[in-house]
UniProtKB/TrEMBL annotation:
<comment type="similarity">
    <text>Belongs to the MoeA family.</text>
</comment>
<dbReference type="Pfam" id="PF12727">
    <property type="entry name" value="PBP_like"/>
</dbReference>
<dbReference type="InterPro" id="IPR036688">
    <property type="entry name" value="MoeA_C_domain_IV_sf"/>
</dbReference>
<keyword id="KW-0460">Magnesium</keyword>
<keyword id="KW-0479">Metal-binding</keyword>
<dbReference type="InterPro" id="IPR024370">
    <property type="entry name" value="PBP_domain"/>
</dbReference>
<dbReference type="Pfam" id="PF03454">
    <property type="entry name" value="MoeA_C"/>
</dbReference>
<dbReference type="InterPro" id="IPR036425">
    <property type="entry name" value="MoaB/Mog-like_dom_sf"/>
</dbReference>
<dbReference type="InterPro" id="IPR008284">
    <property type="entry name" value="MoCF_biosynth_CS"/>
</dbReference>
<dbReference type="GO" id="GO:0006777">
    <property type="term" value="P:Mo-molybdopterin cofactor biosynthetic process"/>
</dbReference>
<dbReference type="InterPro" id="IPR005110">
    <property type="entry name" value="MoeA_linker/N"/>
</dbReference>
<comment type="function">
    <text>May be involved in the biosynthesis of molybdopterin.</text>
</comment>
<keyword id="KW-0808">Transferase</keyword>
<dbReference type="GO" id="GO:0046872">
    <property type="term" value="F:metal ion binding"/>
</dbReference>
<dbReference type="InterPro" id="IPR038987">
    <property type="entry name" value="MoeA-like"/>
</dbReference>
<dbReference type="InterPro" id="IPR001453">
    <property type="entry name" value="MoaB/Mog_dom"/>
</dbReference>
<dbReference type="Pfam" id="PF03453">
    <property type="entry name" value="MoeA_N"/>
</dbReference>
Amino acid sequence: MYKRKIYLEDKPRFEARDEILAAFESTPEKELIPTVDALGRVTAEPIFAPVSTPHYHASAMDGVAVVAESTYTAHEQNPLHLKLGEQFVHVDTGNAIPSPFNAVIMIEHVQVLDEETIEIIEPATPWQHIRPIGEDIVQEEMLFPQGHALRPADLGVLIASGLLSVSVVKKPVVAVIPTGNELVEPGQEMAPGKIVEFNGTVFANFIKEWGGEPRLHRIVKDEPEKIKEALLEASETSDFIVINAGSSAGRKDYTVHIIQELGTVYTHGVAARPGKPVILGKINGTVVIGVPGYPVSAYLALEWFARPLVCKYLGVPEPERQKVTVKLGRRIVSSMGAEDFVRMNIGYVNGQFVANPLTRAAGVTMSYVRADGLLVVPPDVIGYEQGELAEVELLRPLEEIRNAIMFTGSHDLTIDLLSSALKRVRTEMKIVSSHVGSMAGIMAIRKGEAHVAGIHLLDPETKQYNISYVRRLLAGQEVVLYPFLKRKQGWILPAGNPLEIRDVRDLVERGANFVNRQKGAGTRILFDMLMEEAGLEPERIAGYDREMFSHLAVAAEVNSDSCGAGLGIYPAAKAMGLEFVPVSDEEYDLVMTRSFYESEQFKLLAEIIHSPAFKAQVENIGGYQVVENAEPKRLAEEVK
């Protein structure tokens, strides 16, 4: 029985990387492949041209070849007549220039008198419009050094030089071993407690993208002998190994013990979040990288340690991401002593890049998928304040980020539909949304950190939506409040409403487990108003402090609890097959600066919003209606 190893190291990431790079001693192999199949492959040795290109004197134009010296007397006032065969020959682009001719006159500058005679009125110069031997490539010239990744144009050069096959570095073979009793193969039944194995596919494709040859192993159960067998087999057939899960300090995290038993462990734990529980070791001369089971941790660890090994084997430098300076839309807290890798959404607002953090949970795969960039907080920095400038590594092209519309505020399902419709009309554009709640959305507009905010804030005194909040929080700013949707808010309940919830008092009397929205969300404000009207204190609501950041997240929580209850919009309940008890109709409006309202970007959005196709999509969801004939409800002068 292996003894549980509870504590992990805090080794600096770069120290761990350099140590495992030094231990990686696989000797790259060469292979000869057809040039036409060599795109992206890395040259194994310098490549020299066996012939010159062109290998003869070639005409660079359509025209006539002449002896330049015989044309010197040609002039407008002294036209020169030349005879075919004796004093000129016809040539087309690419034709060989026969001796003794040494110049080409473009056909546009030639007057044809008859089939045998032409007239010219200006002299030619020696070698004009002729491509000399070796103009492009000289025989024995080095075309590419070793370690060069071949591009499309490079393949053309090789073929033009007569090289129909090329010696490249054989791709490093990387074994990918997923482990875990909870894992099932894609397509198998997903019982409670079981997880589909998808990390292996992601790892394999990262390795393929970096230039390696992945070999994805079948799932290995959390049994020491089976893990040992898989590692030993892979150590004989691969250049290095990636083993997923079992790298931390859990009861069934055996990997570190097995690597230690079979070989050497260099590192168990690096000073980085997420991604700390990494194992770096060696078995039978083969490097082993143990990465965490949580997807985001695993993806980062793979980049930190597997990518450098692939690049070292191929003899190419590691790629570096483009970086951009951003203004931080929210405060970011870190801890001393470890690097923090924060996934960020980025938008281009009012002439500057603005970034907001996504969830930092290591198991939330979509936070990596949706991220535009990574903010790397150094180990000696405790974080950044809202509004500070910081440098971010980009995960998407800068132009794609620049063309995005930054949407913030309250979550609504139609924003995804709007983004999809926008991308169909303008492929270079999209909406980047951040679900922070209506109040935070208004503050983002106030600070110039978003283009548009969706809000649905009910004033308990006036029973009106949005306008009083805009008056108070955006006073004096040039803003527009644009009517967008009418939608239904209500109780989201398990199918059949087993607790028979009808109003807020029922939550207390029937013992419901409530799922709330975050502070500042319009739904939260509505719920607080309902409690106040009923004379209830938050302490009496079980789950009042349990906050979710979207209507779908509330519905998902209710769906997992037969005593669950939440307040949200009808489409979220419909999406999960849940009961919905209407409470109120609300106005979901868009707030933006006047300059953005007048921009071409918003004019395009408005066209899409009021298109028959988009309206039909929205109404098909249920519980929604696009506001007809929407004009700006309030301009800056009215809300000061």
